[in-house]
Amino acid sequence: MTRITSLTTHDLRARTSKFLHGSDANHPDPDYSAAYVVLHTDGPHSGHGMTFTIGKGNELCCAAIEALGSLVVGRQLSDLTDSMGAFWRSVTNHSQLRWLGPDKGVIHLATAALVNAVWDLWAKERGVPVWQLVAELEPAQFVDCIDFRYVRDEVDEVRALEMLQRMRAGRDERLAQLRRDGYPAYITSAGWLGYPEDEVRRRCRAAMADGWNSFKTKVGIDVASDRRRCEVMREELGDHRQLMADANQVWDVQQAIDWTNELRDYRLRWIEEPTHPDDVLGHAAIRRGVAPVGVATGEHAANRLVFKQLLQAEAIDYVQLDACRLGGLNEVLTVLLLAAARDVPVCPHAGGIGLCEYVQHISVIDYLCVSGSLRDRTTEYADHLHEHFLHPVQVRNGAYVVPEAPGYSIEMHPESISALAYPNGAEWR
Asked: What domains can you pick out in the chain, each with its CATH number?
């Protein structure tokens, strides 16, 4: 039996601000970073997890992970995985540490890193990728991974079990389809706000040559420059490719309505994060005010409760959950069920560092186990920093290739851990 013997954290940062990769209206100079954790064991495998930040404060996440470490160090892996829902509850409901959340902030980001590291270790012990580990669970075992507290008014254990049992039909066919065609995706790498026009055009052309048909651009600083940026991308993409826009929380509610309507000529599929991520009723008002442009949000939705309310208020057209803003895979599974119950498509947020590697598993789980649908689904992709991972995400013709390596695809090369270590790694010297 495998026992977790120790835990180490690493403050890893990439100087993406140097080239304005990741730049948007609220974050003009991000340094894509990972609070990275390794669970060491007395067996042949280690568990790897991370939570994503954009530079300063990454050290706080590392400290929070270490604070939670006592909940897993010294324990048998089977003690955690025999009831993953109870394990998750033990992490999020510690009688003292929960005060720092609950279910939000630095402590919840740390929860994601720790919980996802346990999933990574469990999948490696089984010799399968995380998506397959989840897909092979019996519906009752899947349900046991979830803490239904606070969401039973939307989805309880009985309804979840019914939904999961219904989705078992046709699963083999859906998996064969995914392995043949991949999971549909869109690319953000052409639309960072700091890029000049010629760079936007160059990146659009390169992406189209690689088979991409869905693109996203950043907006929110100046309406005239946003119109020009959307015009440039429409010129490059033509009429038949999809274009989305992302404001990264910069607007007030009425401002979001007015500004989005200024961009109506460019046939946007959605406006993303148009206002504060916790403003449920504000999102509902924006949705009414910008239709037929859809409203997408969720990368900063800290927990399942926010998503429950967004869905109940009919405030969003697309659920954009984040793999480690939520408290790890357990809470992600909860949100997948909430979205499926309301028939709202899940289009996970990615980009960053490691997020693409994470969300490919989530999208496969959603299609195989929860929603059974690809209608209106698309998962974000950004083309940087994948070289740091042992099993980097693969894309083909604008779609994610189903990952096959055991684990959660988040383990990094030792050389990358050394190089990105802040402040003494080679990246920072």
From this structure: 4-127 (3.30.390.10), 165-416 (3.20.20.120)
